[in-house]
Amino acid sequence: MKLNIQNETSRLRAVVLGTAKGSGPIPTPEEAYDPKSLEHIMAGTYPKEEDMIKEMDAVCEVFKKYDIKVYRPEVIENVNQIFARDIALVIEDKIIDCNILPDRQEEIEAIRYVFDQIDRRNIITLPHEAHIEGGDVILHNDYIFVGVCTRPDYKDLITARTNSLAVKLLREHFPNKTVKSFELRKSNTDPRNNALHLDCCFQPVGNGKAILHKNGFFIEEEYEWLVDFFGKENVFEITKDEMYNMKSNIFSIAPDVVISEINFDRLNTWFEAQGITVEKVPYAEIGKQGGLLRCSTMPLIRD
Ligand SMILES: NC(=[NH2+])NCCC[C@H](N)C(=O)O
């Protein structure tokens, strides 16, 4: 397989879509590794496997409609394998075998069969101390944007998934790209004040537009840099509640086609006003686990 990813929006040809099959019983509060899942565990509203399977099937149907090759992880019983985005990531023709949160380590074996189809020279493994998850890495042609956490309490934050060593190594592996990092706001307990990954508060869409949430960024100047980069008129700023509902986490299958959640009225109306076709799917149950459409997909080939 010849990988190719340069950005978030070019026409998609092949993708890994996570699976909700075998995700197992409701986790205990101690087993939760993000505050939004924790909130639903405590409230008794944690999503049911069958409902999540239906939601992901709807995404699979959209991929079929656009003739996109879909790979699914092999099902490992009692492991949550919904968020395929984080376990590996493709940049140009290279794939990075990510060092994810130890609680999620098992998930990677399930896509080993995809790695086996890739020329070994194009597989990058980073040293164990370099933590990185695909949700923190956003490609924008000559730029690689990376969400990072450099706080001294990093090791106590289950919500901090990418560290500065990983950013440094990305720079070394991709000297032709500009790697720009963004310090994210982190909270183990409050999902409204937690940007679990960069794609929870930012994503480029269409041609040169972006969805952004200011409070997800810990350093205001870094947020302002993005606003200036895209131009204020091209930015769709979302509120705290909209971030909580994961509105920045839609998924583009072309510059003029996105997959979005059926209830994201304000955002979907904006897309349509930009001339972007919106493929609407129900995804609110998946959203209870702190991830949405971008998080559950890992693109392998775009034009
Ligand atoms: N790319 C993302 N934003 N992924 C979301 C992952 C959510 C998952 N519950 C976790 O904590 O790991």
UniProtKB/TrEMBL annotation:
Signal peptide: none annotated. It catalyses: L-arginine + H2O = L-citrulline + NH4(+). Pathway: Amino-acid degradation; L-arginine degradation via ADI pathway; carbamoyl phosphate from L-arginine: step 1/2. Its EC number is 3.5.3.6. Gene3D superfamilies: L-arginine/glycine Amidinotransferase, Chain A (3.75.10.10). It is an enzyme of class 3 (hydrolase). PANTHER family: ARGININE DEIMINASE (PTHR47271). It comes from the Bacteria. This is arginine deiminase.
